[in-house]
User: Which sequence fits this backbone?
């Protein structure tokens, strides 16, 4: 059973460009979480999605960031007009559903904004 | 706001038990204690969780005090590959997000 997959693993964008980060949850998992880890800082929750629904986006910056988890296909974290401060590791996790105790994390996408 | 307090760093000799403490004095009755670890910027890895009873799995043991205000993660025979940042997290279940604190940097020495 393949684990959580994230791509790309490394992404370089110039200031003002858009970044799209993709996350394929484990097979059978319908819940996806996105976390961000800034350099030398801890992991911070961003957003929690179920298929076609955003459940909790309290950790998302108010502007430029959006996330979706469509009925078919991977979850997408989209960052518009990137700035240097967006440089970070973005981790996706998945879980089977409610009453699940474990979140399974992907390897992360390292975003570098130049 | 962090619900847990952990030492910043700990050292352990290879082959010995590593005991990582965590204080969570404000834990509520429906909150679980979770432990995750992050090895050198990889994605975090789930280790174990518990509510009030002690738990053991193939990776570790979790000892929770009777008043549930603190817990200890035990790696019975630490190896060099156990060097990582260990996070103690207190959250309700049912799809809750995880709130990571600073964690404990465990270094296993040969």
Assistant:
């Amino acid at each position: 059973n393949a684990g959580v997959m994230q791509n790309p693993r490394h992404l370089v964008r110039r200031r003002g460009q858009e970044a799209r980060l993709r996350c394929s949850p484990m097979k059978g998992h319908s819940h996806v979480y996105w976390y961000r880890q800034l350099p030398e800082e801890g992991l911070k929750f961003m957003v929690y999605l179920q298929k076609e629904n955003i459940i909790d986006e309290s950790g998302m910056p108010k502007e430029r960031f959006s996330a979706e988890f469509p009925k078919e296909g991977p979850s997408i974290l989209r960052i518009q007009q990137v700035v240097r401060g967006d440089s970070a590791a973005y981790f996706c996790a998945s879980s089977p559903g409610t009453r699940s105790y474990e979140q399974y994390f992907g390897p992360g996408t390292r975003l570098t904004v130049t | 706001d962090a619900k847990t307090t952990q030492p910043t760093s700990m050292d352990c000799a290879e082959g010995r038990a590593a005991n990582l403490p965590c204080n969570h004095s404000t834990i509520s009755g429906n909150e679980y204690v979770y432990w995750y670890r992050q090895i050198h910027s990889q994605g975090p890895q789930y280790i174990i969780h518990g509510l009030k009873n002690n738990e053991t799995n193939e990776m570790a043991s979790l000892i929770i005090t009777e008043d549930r205000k603190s817990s200890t993660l035990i790696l019975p025979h630490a190896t060099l590959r156990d060097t990582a940042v260990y996070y103690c997290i207190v959250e309700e279940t049912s799809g809750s997000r995880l709130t990571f604190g600073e964690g404990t940097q465990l270094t296993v020495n040969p």
